[in-house]
Specification:
Layout lengths: L3 E6 L9 E5 L9 H10 L1 H10 L8 E5 L7 E5 L11 H18 L4 E4 L11 H16 L7 E6 L2 H17 L25
Parallel strand pairs: 1-6, 2-4, 2-5, 5-6
Antiparallel strand pairs: 3-4
Helix pairs in contact: 3-4, 4-5
Bound molecules: ligand AR6.
Length: 199
């Protein structure tokens, strides 16, 4: 079995997955954007659990809580880098975010994980560059986390969705997956073992 990587447009708080990843801040206090949406949908007990268990989270690291009022079983909170000019280790930190978030998800036994476009909102990361870094980090992390069957990038707008689709296509061409290909007649999926899901 090979994992699937999908790119869809939607509201991540509605995802029925084992783990929803949150783009949090280092203080782990509810903010705006996807973080605000996740806290609103989960309810106040999410912040209570964060306050009880953690004093914060460094950029590039990840922590886990229950899903509270969300359909997801758990939330993995990771902190993306604030974009400066590309020379402040932004790519390394965004890679670490994705790797640590997926490792955390695997530790709680997740088979399915939904990810937002981390750092591309309030933190100002250029979307095309973030999409390349995120898709590379996910493909590479999944090679070592066989328990994760599906990772879905849930994008909030068409431009972000398009950027992630294009980046995933390039990434899958660049990074060879060590397996025979599995192409069936009439199957519209790309022949790569890791494929992009449709809407
Ligand atoms: N579902 C999916 N994606 C969403 C949703 C949603 N419900 N809402 C927004 N997005 P941002 P960051 C997209 O700003 O750049 C917070 O205040 C959004 O359109 O949420 O990592 C935190 O507390 C964008 O494409 O996260 C931090 O302080 C993407 O999610 C800071 O913002 C990420 O935008 C983190 O900034």
């Amino acid at each position: 079995m090979h994992p699937r990587i999908e790119v869809t447009k939607g509201d991540i708080t509605e995802e029925e997955v084992d783990v929803v990843v949150n783009a949090a801040n280092e203080r782990l206090k509810a903010g705006g954007g996807v973080d605000g949406a996740i806290h609103r949908a989960a309810g106040p007990t999410l912040q209570e659990e964060l306050d009880r268990r953690y004093s914060g989270c460094a950029t590039g690291e990840a922590v886990v809580t229950a899903g509270h009022g969300l359909p997801a079983r758990h939330v993995v909170h990771t902190v993306g880098p604030v974009w400066k000019d590309g020379t402040a280790k932004e790519d390394e930190l965004l890679t670490a975010c994705h790797r640590n978030a997926l490792r955390c998800a695997a530790e709680v036994g997740a088979g399915t994980v939904a990810l937002p476009a981390i750092s591309t909102g309030a933190f100002g990361y250029p979307v095309e560059r973030a999409a390349r870094v995120a898709t590379r980090a996910v493909v590479s992390a999944l090679k070592e986390l066989p328990e994760i069957e599906c990772v879905r990038f849930v994008c909030f707008d068409d431009g972000t969705k398009q950027a992630f689709r294009s980046a995933l296509e390039v990434t899958l061409k660049e990074m060879s997956w060590e397996s025979e290909e599995d192409e069936r007649p009439g199957d519209s999926r790309p022949s790569s073992p890791v494929w992009m899901g449709s809407e």
